[in-house]
Amino acid sequence: MFSFLRSSFPRVHSSDLRKYFCPFRKSSSSLSWRTHTCGELRGVDVGSQVTLCGWLQFKRYDFMATLRDAHGVTQFVLPEDQKMPTGDVEVVADDLEILNNCSEQLPMQVHDHTNVTDATRMLFRYLDLRSSRMQRNLRRRSEVAMKMREYLWKQHNFVEVETPNLFRRTPGGAKEFVVPTHQPGQFYSLPQSPQQFKQLLMVGAIDRYFQVARCFRDEGSRPDRQPEFTQVDIEMSFIDQGCIYRLVEGLMQYCWPSDLADIRVPFPRMKYEEAINQYGTDKPDTRFGMTLVDVTSTLKDSGVSVFESTSPDFVIKVIRCPDGSKHLTKGKLDHLQTTCQDKRSIRFLPVVLKEDGSWKSSIEKHLPEEAKASVAEAVDAVPGDALLLCAGPANSVNHCLGFLRLKCADILEEQGIKLRDPDCFNFLWVDDFPLFLQSEQGDSSEDDVLESAHHPFTAPVVGEEELVYSDPLKVRGQHYDLVSNGVEVAGGSIRIHSSQLQRYILETILQEDISGMTHLLQALESGCPPHGGIAIGFDRLIALLCGEDTIRDVIAFPKTADGNDLMSGAPSEVSAEDLARYHISVDQKGS
User: How far apart are CA 293 and CA 275, in angstroms?
Assistant: First the structure.
């Protein structure tokens, strides 16, 4: 049972949860009834008269209980039994006042090791927030946010500017939520980022801007994504990529929690092409090996039909899974193979190296021994390893093996083989992205539609501007991502400050309707300075720092995977009168 109490004690003993809350300990009781928190008292406080406030967590017998607040737990006894030993000191209550009663049986108990489902935690989030886990996470979030503000404002003279949440549709990028108005057929859009506003601020001479911004995307929720999320938005004038790198590296060091392993700067840099070719992803986890190795030249003309192709885009790659013969059972290999078969045009072939070095595979009888030896040598394979071979179009093969690399790491770690140190944070910059990609909505004709690899406001690499007009798929963009442990922590770019180039990219290459972009194009014509910036995914960063697998556990009131709030029942229906006010009718069939 949890009841809200205020108690006065002359002698006290408290549990040591101070390690989670020490940054806030000095002022947590100011302007309050209490003199100390329930996680603060120590032996040096013996003899002091103190007042504590919190929830009654446990009651033992008729004379012993524990009081809990956001900072820890304190055990106390009632005067009837003052000889009960409770550790370094004995706790005796002079007075006990019940401030508010609660239900005899709460829907969930708040213990550090309570086994409740995520759905229950979200349904009764106000109780889940009392747990030391959520208290630690949200307080760490607050501390990091404050330090970021301090670094940007005090040390680098940035100006924090709030930008509107009611805006209009932004071309390209994610789907946006729309907000109805009283004007028939007129809608706002909730911004997926303050992209246009921060560029307009550069035009307006706010040459160092930041904001802890709320952003919105009408997409399905994932462990690292919510329909509403927070990013630390940064923009600067008269800079290049190196300036952004140094700023963010300093920012990360400044706000880095003292209880985590130190990070070293400058962060390593990796080109997009290298990341894709070696790790199969543009956000590589570099804490472990198992990189992709190209064996096309060895196997393409080996006489095995699955390795034959006339396509110039055809590749054969392999990853080595150490001790895979022991840990990748037939069932697991079959599952991996099924996963790969879902990928288009992929040919997947698992190989197990027996103790004598021979191959166990469907192609072992058809492949020359020299080819087998060359493949094993290319990945430093030894007996007992497993090799995962993929053949097909380069992009599909890279994507598939990148996925299998992470799945194999999961399988090995489930068997007790540690590959990814949770206490290690491998930051790196990934840059040299293509400026445009072939749209998945295009066809095979010459009129295929292109899409921005980042967003339509990213500038091309200096010296490649003319390729935008002649061969756009060859243009690299000044886009950069900050990655740590396979998580994209931040992303940004140097922006286009030429109105002519911006207009051509939007209208001709991306085939966007620019009627809603007149304000930005006119601003670029008004003496817009060269500028660029970055957005730090704040929820993802905090999840990384807290060791959480999902950003839901570092957000006070998150949404489910379907974008629902289980606690309040949002989204919900509105009355017919409200719908009529906004000139909206609902299709009950959902067609």
Answer: 12
What is the C-alpha separation between 91 and 370, in angstroms, rounded?
77
The position carrying tokens 């040459």 is 207
What SS3 class is residue 465?
Answer: coil
506 HSE (CA, 13 A, CB side): 22
Q: What are phi and psi of 516, to 5 degrees?
A: -90, 5
Q: Given the DSSP bridges, would you call strands 436-438 and 359-360 parallel, antiparallel or unpaired? A: unpaired
Query: Are the C-beta atoms of 336 and 388 separated by less than 8 Å?
Result: yes
Name the 3-class secondary structure at 570: strand
- DSSP annotation of 506 reads I
Residue 24 has pLDDT above 80, yes or no: no
- Long-range contacts, stretch 464-473, CB < 8 angstroms, 24+ apart: 465/501, 468/435, 468/501, 468/504, 468/505, 468/509, 469/504, 472/435, 472/436, 472/509, 473/434, 473/436, 473/438
Q: How many CB atoms lie within 10 A of CB 556?
A: 12
Residue 564 phi, psi (nearest 5): -100, 150
Instruction: Give the model's pLDDT for residue 16.
Output: 41
AA letter at 112: D
**pLDDT reading at 82 higher than 60:** no
Per the listing, tokens 């949860």 go with 17
Nearest alpha-carbon partner for 442 in 402, 473, 403, 401: 473
Token code pair at residue 422: 């949770």
Q: Which residues contact residue 203 at a Cβ distance below 8 angstroms, ignoring those fewer than 6 apart?
A: 523, 524, 526, 527, 528, 529
- pLDDT reported for residue 221: 64
Beta partners for 392? 315
**In terms of residues, how long is the chain?**
591
- Distance in angstroms (rounded) separating the CA atoms of residues 379 and 32: 64
- CA count, 13 A, side-chain hemisphere, 215: 26
**Strands, DSSP E only, in 29-174?**
50-60, 64-69, 72-77, 95-100, 159-160
Report pTM: 0.86
Tokens encoding 352: 């197990």
Give me the chain's average pLDDT, please: 88
Vertex 202: Cα angle to 196 and 208 (nearest 5): 115
> What is the reported pLDDT for 2?
41
What share of the chain in percent tops pLDDT 70? 90
Taking a C-beta distance cutoff of 8 angstroms, is the pair 316, 307 a contact? yes
Bridge-based pairing of strands 347-353 and 50-60 is unpaired
pLDDT at position 52: 87
In 433-524, which ranges are continuous DSSP H helix? 467-470, 499-504, 518-524
Report residue 235 as tokens: 């923009």
User: Helix (H, G, I), strand (E, B), or coil: what is residue 583?
Assistant: coil
Cα separation, 466 vs 428, in Å, equals 30
355 Cα distance to chain centroid: 41
Amino acid at 457: F
pLDDT at residue 87 above 90? no
Report the distance separating Cα 461 and Cα 432, nearest Å.
8
The mean pLDDT value for 353-377 works out to 91
Is 283:487 a contact under the CB 8 Å cutoff? yes
How would you class 182 by CB atoms within 10 Å of its CB: exposed for 0-12, middle for 13-18, buried for 19 or more?
A: exposed
